[in-house]
TrEMBL record:
PROSITE patterns documented for this protein: N6_MTASE
Entry-linked Pfam families: MTS
Keyword S-adenosyl-L-methionine: yes
Function summary: Specifically methylates the adenine in position 37 of tRNA(1)(Val) (anticodon cmo5UAC).
Name of the molecule in the record: tRNA1(Val) (adenine(37)-N6)-methyltransferase
Keywords associated with the record: Cytoplasm, Methyltransferase, S-adenosyl-L-methionine, Transferase, tRNA processing
Reactions that this protein is recorded to catalyse: adenosine(37) in tRNA1(Val) + S-adenosyl-L-methionine = N(6)-methyladenosine(37) in tRNA1(Val) + S-adenosyl-L-homocysteine + H(+)
Gene3D superfamilies: Vaccinia Virus protein VP39
Taxon lineage: Bacteria, Pseudomonadati, Bacteroidota, Cytophagia, Cytophagales
Family of this protein: Belongs to the methyltransferase superfamily. tRNA (adenine-N(6)-)-methyltransferase family.
GO CC annotations on file: cytoplasm
Alphabetical list of InterPro entries matching this protein: DNA_methylase_N6_adenine_CS, SAM-dependent_MTases_sf, Small_mtfrase_dom, tRNA_Adenine-N(6)_MTase, tRNA_adenine-N6_MeTrfase
Organism in which the protein naturally occurs: Spirosoma radiotolerans
Length: 248
């Protein structure tokens, strides 16, 4: 179980658990638009897992309708329970199935994705873990095709990946008419390399704005230490997650 300020994520029946980088995506992606909250009316979470990104989006945008698609049956059931137990149950809707087969009536202003990215790695004996981590059931071309089909002409797609996969996805997306306009490079600390990249895509071609985020202060216990404290995290990270994490 992972407790946030406004909702709780139960995760005992899902392959992918709550992780810091997914929380950063949920807090960083633009889900409201440049005008007051409500301009973004429809949000799609592809591969919702526990429902984390959908619930974070619902908390940040208090009027949007949010659809969350998940192929794993157990994960859908648990995500639905998390949604029902939240204050956002009337606005977040779960769909069980493949995004390749998802055919909604309307397109979306924002699409959020924390996709599988392993290709040739060793397999887990757990089929649910394989679905969550490996691209067999949702390749990058299939994901891009779904985004192009489902996103509004002035919409945005926000995706979280490791650096190598983020570069690969950006090249494929560009060929399909999706252009990266914003990137957040995430490091554990200043001495560590970038381990995750959050990229915002749109159909409009514009200059790429790049920013960085360090999770932990240099010289202090990292996130894997039992001695971590509030002061372990950088002020930028605390500010970004303040509306979600209980410790902030």
């Amino acid at each position: 179980m992972f407790r946030f300020k406004q909702f709780i994520i139960q995760q005992d029946r899902t392959a992918m658990k709550v992780c810091t980088d997914a929380c950063v995506l949920g807090a960083y992606a633009d889900v409201t638009g440049s005008q007051p909250a409500g301009q973004v009316k429809r949000i799609l979470d592809i591969g919702t897992g526990t429902g984390l990104l959908a619930l974070m989006a619902a908390q940040r945008n208090q009027t949007a309708q949010i659809d969350a698609v998940e192929v794993d049956e157990a994960a859908v059931g648990q995500a639905q329970e998390n949604v029902v137990a939240s204050p956002f149950a009337e606005r977040v809707h779960m769909w069980h199935g493949r995004i390749q087969d998802f055919r909604p009536t309307n397109r979306y202003d924002r699409i959020l994705t924390n996709p599988p990215f392993y290709t040739n790695h060793l397999r887990s004996p757990d089929s649910a873990v394989n679905r969550a981590l490996h691209t067999d059931e949702l390749s990058f071309p299939e994901l891009i095709e779904a985004v192009v089909r489902l996103m509004e002409p002035d919409g945005q797609w926000w995706v979280l990946l490791p650096p190598f996969e983020a570069e690969k996805l950006a090249l494929l997306a560009n060929q399909a008419g999706l252009h990266a306009f914003k990137q957040l490079l995430v490091r554990h600390n200043g001495q560590k390399p970038v381990f995750r990249v959050i990229t915002g895509f749109s159909f409009e071609e514009r200059d790429l704005h790049e920013a960085s985020l360090m999770l932990y202060e240099p010289g202090k216990p990292d996130g894997f230490s039992e001695n971590r404290s509030v002061e372990t995290y950088t002020s930028e990270f605390r500010t970004l997650l303040r509306e979600f994490y209980l410790i902030f």
